[in-house]
Specification:
The chain is an alpha/beta fold and about 350 residues long. It is built from ten helices and 13 strands. The strands form two sheets. The protein has a seven-stranded mixed beta sheet. GO terms for molecular function: carboxypeptidase activity; serine-type peptidase activity.
Length: about 350
């Protein structure tokens, strides 16, 4: 794949930097602060003095899964997104609470409907957590696809990404979320840059360091996300039937044996063997035990390579980590490896 050189050299070079795990954080398939704040920050944020961004760039924030624990983190995220040139609007139930959820199932479903009808082009989740699976059967998928919105989230939102692809073939995005990536004490420069470039359609190639990658040079539909969420959809109408795809995976706080068990299910279900490549992101925040006796994530990858006759590429900057790319699920892409580097080519736009 000769066109994997040159484009977006700054982002490509930076993307090779290692991601940092956040082992000290509590997890619920995402991380966030727990400090309480009783204020409702629901006003719109206008973009700051950033030049070169079209006026139409805007983000509508929703909470379709777990409740926001600290509304101030959403406010911080909105300020940072405004500084990057994005106007933001907060859905009226984004800060709602019902048990562990951001509102009742009906409220969260209604927020998705509003998101599809409002005018801002990007819809971003505040956080992941748990709850999207409850809504899949009730979502009007055609309306979601016909809206033309760029839906962005990760973790629990993987269920939405994959269901949208399975039901309509529409592209959506996984990567940055408001609280985790923009609402903390600092923002990872690369995560911020890659989010902006992908949303503006500017990122053509994402290059990253990879160790012992299998040789691969192919094109296919990019799909995947959180391993636990993807595995939970197997056998349902919301699992995409992708043949010849490029499947990428990440997870958090899952011991390597649990990761392997999910991979075994996907392999035995015939899903892994149909792909052209399997790309592994970060598997973070797990603890090995003395009785593992050398069994670790490297052993899982070795098992995967031996068992599934599909090229495996590691090192994708994606997961429950500070440095992550925002990626298009459902878009045709290319991937090639050479000399310790992998190049993910995003220059084919099949929206």
């Amino acid at each position: 794949m000769s066109n994997t050189r040159g484009a977006k050299a700054r982002a490509a070079k930076a993307a090779a930097a290692p991601a940092h795990d956040h082992a000290s954080h509590a997890h619920d398939h995402d991380h966030e602060c727990d400090e309480a704040c009783g204020h409702d920050h629901s006003h719109d944020h206008e973009p700051g003095h950033v030049h070169g961004f079209p006026d139409a760039r805007g983000i509508y924030l929703i909470s379709p899964s777990s409740a926001v624990r600290d509304p101030q983190t959403v406010e911080v995220a909105r300020e940072r997104l405004a500084a990057q040139g994005f106007k933001t609007a907060l859905d009226r139930t984004a800060l709602a609470e019902h048990q562990r959820f951001a509102g009742t199932d009906a409220q969260r479903l209604a927020s998705l409907t509003r998101a599809a009808k409002q005018k801002l082009p990007i819809v971003m989740v505040t956080r992941g957590g748990y709850g999207m699976g409850r809504l899949l059967h009730a979502i009007d998928w055609k309306a979601m696809a016909d809206s033309g919105k760029r839906f962005v989230g990760m973790s629990d939102f993987t269920a939405f990404n994959l269901a949208l692809l399975a039901q309509t073939g529409a592209v959506s995005y996984t990567g940055a979320t408001a609280i985790y990536d923009f609402g903390g004490k600092k923002v990872d420069d690369l995560t911020e840059a890659l989010f902006g470039e992908v949303m503006r359609g500017e990122l053509e190639i994402l290059s990253f360091e990879t160790q012992d990658a299998d040789p691969v040079d192919c094109r296919g539909i990019l799909w995947g996300g959180n391993l636990a969420m993807l595995t939970s959809l197997a056998g349902t109408p919301y699992m995409p039937k992708v043949r010849g795809g490029i499947l990428f995976l990440e997870d958090v706080a899952e011991h390597p044996y649990r990761i392997e068990r999910m991979l075994i299910q996907l392999w035995q279900a015939g899903i892994l063997g149909k792909q052209k490549a399997i790309v592994l992101g970060r598997f973070s925040d797990y603890k090995l035990a003395p009785h593992d006796k050398g069994y670790d994530l490297h052993e899982v990858v070795a098992w995967l390579r031996k068992t599934v006759k599909v090229p495996v590429v590691t090192g994708l900057p994606y997961g429950h980590v500070a440095t992550k790319a925002t990626l298009p699920i459902g878009q045709k892409v290319g991937i090639a490896t050479e000399k310790g580097l992998a190049h993910l080519v995003l220059d084919e736009h099949h929206h």
